Predict the structure.
Amino acid sequence: MRPPWPAWQHGGMRWQTTGDVAGFLAAAGDFLRAERARNTVILSVTETLRAGQSRHSPDKDSSPLFGWWTAGAAADPVEGPVVGPVEGPVQGAFMHTPPFPLLLSAVPAQAAADLAASTLAGRPIAGVNSYAEAATAFAAAWRERTSCQVDLHRRNRLYRLAELSWPDPRPEGAPRTAGERDAALLTDWFTAFALEVDDMAGADQAAAVRDKLSYGGLTLWEVRGTPVAMAGVTRRVAGMVRIGPVYTPPGLRGHGYASAVTAAVSSAAIAAGVAEVLLYTDLANPVSNSIYQRIGYRQVEDRVVLAFSGQ
């Protein structure tokens, strides 16, 4: 007998949730891979969890939670455990890995509102990352439940590599794959990057560095043996990787190092046979958006991150 699946059903729509990444991918993996670029973050994070490289607290409020949405044929609204998955194709998904905001795929506004109003009731959530319509609907329902304040935290733009162009002129230096001897420097740079972009600076940056080093996912640009910039890349999943973070210390900026190290990791991904190379930018940063377009990245879509406070 299959275990019960916690669910929320409303007017034929139903959310099902699980803390088991394998169960989530078994249910929603085909949906996610069908639009791998749009679902790049969920796919890459679940691949990291599946690989066993990330450790989370056993506390249910701080452990990962995943869910998928179906438009199954249901006659009456019910709330409670459901034995077996609901019939009907998966049409949406979410991932919540505290302390990061809830990450929500494209879903109708009503499905997003139901997720906030019932499925996630009682779970501490700091914000939502989704498309504007879904994020707004989720935030409105969350505010109704918690009386929280909702603020725009960031507008993100997803880019896909079309044809790679190296910076011209190419800056001095060369790339090399980072190793364990670089861990302390990279942890400092991860921490500085998180503070600068206001992106969960309290997260365990040392663990993030160890994870990326474990599969050769960090590259340094060096000038005469001195690291001057870094770029990370996710694990390959569904024929896709995503670049990030990319960081140059403030005193070393303006020399093209970020462009060069991004081009280097992009080139390495192409050489390895990756079908899609992606990255996200903050739309409030015109410099980074310009840099990536100059080396061959093209716009795919935009998302918003809304922050909740005063709950």
In short: The chain is about 30% helix and 30% strand. Residues 132-146 form the longest helix (15 residues). Residues 1-11, 53-58, 73-86 have pLDDT under 50 and may be disordered.
